[in-house]
Amino acid sequence: MDYINRYIYAVTKYFSGKQREEIEKELRANIMDMIEQQQGPELFEEKVKQVLLKLGDPENIADGYRGTKRYLIGPNYYDTYILVLKIVIASVFVGISLAVLVENLFISGNQIGQVMENYVSLVFSGVLQAFTWTTVAFFIIERKNRFASHLTQKREWDLSKLPAIPHNKAIISFADAIATIVVTTVVYTIVITIIFSDPELIAAYVQGDNGTVVIPVFHTDVLQGYKFFILTVFMMSILKALLKLYYRKWTVSHAVIHSVLTALVTIITLVILLDSTVWNANFATEIDSLVNWSIDFPLFWKRVKQSIVAVVAIVGFTQIIVALYKAFRYRSA
């Protein structure tokens, strides 16, 4: 039965949800019917091998269930590509909308026309970039797999090419992969929109004698100088999320790529946070002069910044360890 399960997995791994369940049920029934029709004294295992060899490459069977072929993004990933594209675009739209809403809650005096013009411009730019980068990512994945398939097609397909069924703890659920994409896109879209347009919004709002005093957390000019690196962190984080959807399980290659990307994201983030000039040097003293604290606020703020750096480092290190552990502990092949 191991060959049957592996064959069905090889066919259905490109589908999800109810469609996957229906295809698995139908394919299993067809395989069992074909085995029963096999005449001869062969053992059950031999009949299984004969039937699966007769069915041929699982990718061809999967194509048959789809019924259509697409060419820019191949049939193996087209449906997933469309779903991810919709999710990413919707997430970008939500992120930008929230960022603009927050911006205009704290900044008074903006004209409605100016706000709408800025909003439409940001949405158009964000959606265009979401479409472009998502398409490029899936195009690369498709071409990579097409090249690999071209190499393997030079050899006749046989049962040894069936993938092993992954351990349950190594499987990445479809919902988990999609949730990662949504959260990553929304959070980074909000952060990037604010940093690129109004970084002074990231501030402490303290009530003073003459009204509300806005004290920026960061030195805005220095922070905006890191735009390229912040975008790089965003793109690598999205790539990590897309790779979860692509692999759908923790393999050694997936864990290594994930770890490298996580290390780069962590290092770049730490470089930005450890740059003393990126922080507003007068932040703690200005607040301390306006509020009667029972604590040494400048010392407290210093420890807060150190804690942020520590959390970023620990989270990045933990993600790497967990990914590598799952890949090596539960690898099926």
Automatic annotation (TrEMBL):
**Keywords (A to Z) from UniProt:** Membrane, Transmembrane, Transmembrane helix
Where do transmembrane segments lie in this chain? Answer: 80-102, 122-141, 170-196, 226-243, 255-274, 308-328
Pfam families in alphabetical order:
HAAS
Please verify whether the record's keywords include Transmembrane helix. Answer: yes
Q: Which domain of life is it from?
A: Bacteria
The answer, when asked if Membrane is one of the entry's keywords, is: yes
According to UniProt, the name of this protein is: Uncharacterized protein
Query: Which species is listed as the source?
Result: Fervidibacillus halotolerans
